[in-house]
User: Which sequence fits this backbone?
């Protein structure tokens, strides 16, 4: 049995329980599986491999990723399955254990075809391969004025009929749906989605604070890419961001690339949201490819330094890995532990309440190969990660 000492486990941001241990010792068997975790007393000396305060965490979970390796998830064909599996292998190497493949607004037929391909891909799960959670439908029930890069011709008014046309028969394949809750008919759609145990996110919306509250009351539990495609913070019109912070239990997605949201605002949101903050990549089909010109449906994406824009300048997404967001956020705000939480544990709690409540219990039996080791360098304010084994 091998022992690792002075290990930290990511704690819930702003947790105030003084009984929560800061350092742990870990016993690992010959297969690299965790046999036991034991709290360590401060400054205690113990034989073993000393991690010197590095964190051990689960791998990342990305609830908003639109494709990669040239594949756009809404355009998937059966013949794309081998490339999709290679993308999942790449995501594992990039520290991501699971994704909710995001299908942006598109026509009904390609949407349903993509859901069928994703359903088939889930059967190909194997060790050291990122696995597919239920899909994230971003649209089509969005506010036209806040549609961003979503094609106008495929937007749709919310209705149960329009919902069934898209997901009928695939209800168990959907984990999350983004919509604008202020649209007429949205309340009934939200209620139906919650009955199906599908999480609902507010996004691409003109919702006022009052309309956001109504959406939360109906069952909305998340904001999709906070600040982007929604009203921002204003001292006379707090909007959905302020109301989500005030509610205290609404997950708040954030693209931490420094372009979608200025670093100062990202840090402010981290301070306001605490454990509600959920990092997402919003990566598009050119993820894993070089910068330059790339096709996206019938349009062209211009990728420069990881930022994707349409030819008219509309910001469309990124090609940066999820964990790059955690690294950047930590460097901006000097809160590495909170940034680790936002990329690894907070997204799990969106789909499963209190998923991280007993992290030490969840880690027992896990292989170090399936976990991440994080190090923070105070000298240069840099967070880094690697696979723990």
Assistant:
């Amino acid at each position: 049995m091998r022992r690792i000492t002075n290990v930290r486990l990511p704690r819930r941001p702003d947790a105030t329980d003084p009984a929560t241990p800061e350092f742990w010792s870990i016993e690992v068997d010959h297969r690299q599986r965790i046999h036991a975790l034991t709290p360590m007393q401060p400054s205690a000396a113990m034989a073993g491999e000393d991690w010197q305060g590095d964190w051990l965490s689960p791998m990342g979970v990305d609830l908003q990723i639109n494709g990669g390796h040239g594949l756009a998830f809404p355009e998937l064909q059966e013949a794309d399955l081998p490339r999709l599996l290679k993308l999942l292998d790449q995501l594992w190497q990039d520290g991501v254990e699971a994704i909710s493949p995001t299908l942006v607004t598109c026509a009904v037929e390609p949407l349903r075809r993509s859901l069928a391909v994703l359903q088939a891909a889930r059967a190909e799960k194997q060790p050291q391969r990122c696995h597919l959670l239920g899909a994230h439908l971003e649209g089509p029930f969005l506010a036209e004025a806040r549609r961003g890069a979503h094609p106008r011709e495929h937007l749709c008014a919310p209705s149960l009929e329009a919902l069934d046309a898209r997901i009928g028969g695939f209800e168990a394949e959907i984990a999350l749906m983004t919509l604008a809750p202020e649209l007429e008919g949205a309340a009934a759609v939200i209620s139906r989605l919650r009955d199906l145990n599908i999480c609902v996110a507010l996004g691409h919306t003109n919702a006022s604070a009052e309309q956001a509250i109504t959406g939360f009351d109906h069952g909305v539990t998340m904001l999709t890419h906070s600040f982007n495609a929604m009203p921002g913070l204003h001292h006379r019109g707090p909007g959905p961001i302020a109301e989500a912070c005030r509610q205290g239990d609404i997950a708040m997605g954030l693209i931490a690339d420094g372009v979608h949201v200025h670093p100062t605002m990202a840090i402010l949101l981290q301070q306001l949201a605490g454990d509600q903050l959920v990092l997402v990549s919003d990566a598009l089909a050119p993820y894993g490819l070089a910068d330059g010109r790339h096709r996206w449906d019938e349009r062209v994406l211009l990728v420069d330094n990881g930022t994707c824009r349409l030819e008219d300048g509309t910001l469309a997404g990124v090609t940066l890995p999820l964990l790059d967001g955690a690294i950047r956020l930590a460097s901006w705000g000097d809160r590495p532990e909170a940034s680790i939480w936002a990329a690894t544990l907070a997204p799990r709690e969106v789909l499963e309440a209190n998923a991280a409540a007993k992290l030490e219990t969840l880690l027992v039996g896990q292989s170090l190969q399936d976990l991440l080791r994080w190090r923070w360098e105070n000298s240069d304010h840099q967070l880094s990660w690697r696979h723990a084994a």
Residues 70 and 335 are 34 Å apart (CA to CA). The chain has a mean pLDDT of 94.
